[in-house]
Design brief:
Elements lengths: L1 H5 L4 E3 L7 H6 L4 E4 L12 E2 L3 H10 L3 E5 L5 H10 L3 E3 L7 H11 L6 E5 L2 H10 L3 E5 L8 H10 L10 E2 L10
Parallel strand pairs: 1-7, 2-4, 2-6, 4-5, 6-7
Antiparallel strand pairs: 3-8
Bound molecules: magnesium ion (MG).
The site of magnesium ion (MG) has 7 residues, from loops.
């Protein structure tokens, strides 16, 4: 069916740090609209994507802009992560709807063909990228407690994190207040 066909990402990598800066530059990418939950950090704050801090620094050092677009509802938590990684962005973005992506595009001042959306979920990140005519890159979902609907359709919208793959524990997790 055409809906499912259109839900395929442009590219897939297992983790963020598998995405080489040179490769992004070769694609003409100057900005990234980035997902937070289960892409950078697991929803329960237990795991970080391996080497994510170094990768984020490398991306920005190379002049590629990053704007977080998160559907997360907990404000304190969102502020904690944007501050820890020195990123700007918005929460409660209601992906896949276009408004959050439009806000990111206004902030980054780049053309559509210079921006990639990176995230772990087809129905929010990848579908949102399609609605906004942006390139999309899917990564595997960091291990996280499953919501009820993920037990039903999770296999269709996320790629499980490979068991053989390295994971970083979030050792500063106890500082996070949930509010
Ligand atoms: Mg996500």
């Amino acid at each position: 069916m055409s809906l499912f066909f259109s839900l395929r990402p442009s590219f897939y990598f297992t983790t963020l740090s598998d995405i080489q800066i040179h490769w992004l530059e070769k694609q003409g990418i100057r900005g990234i609209i980035l997902d937070l939950d289960n892409t950078i950090v697991s929803e329960d704050d237990r795991y970080l994507s391996p080497n994510v801090e170094a990768w984020l620094n490398q991306v920005t050092r190379n002049g590629i802009k990053i704007f977080l677009v998160s559907n997360g509802k907990r404000k304190t938590r969102f502020l904690y992560w944007t501050e820890r990684f020195n990123l700007s962005g918005i929460q409660k973005a209601r992906k896949p709807f276009r408004s959050g992506f439009q806000q990111a595009m206004r902030s980054m001042r780049l053309n559509l063909n210079q921006v990639a959306v990176i995230g772990d979920s087809l129905h929010t990140d990848i579908l949102g990228a399609k609605f906004s005519n942006l390139m999309s890159i899917q990564v595997a979902s960091l291990p996280h407690p499953k919501r009820w609907w993920e037990n039903l359709i999770g296999a269709y919208i996320q790629i499980p994190y490979p068991k053989s793959y390295r994971l970083d524990f979030n050792r500063k997790g106890s500082h996070i207040t949930h509010g």
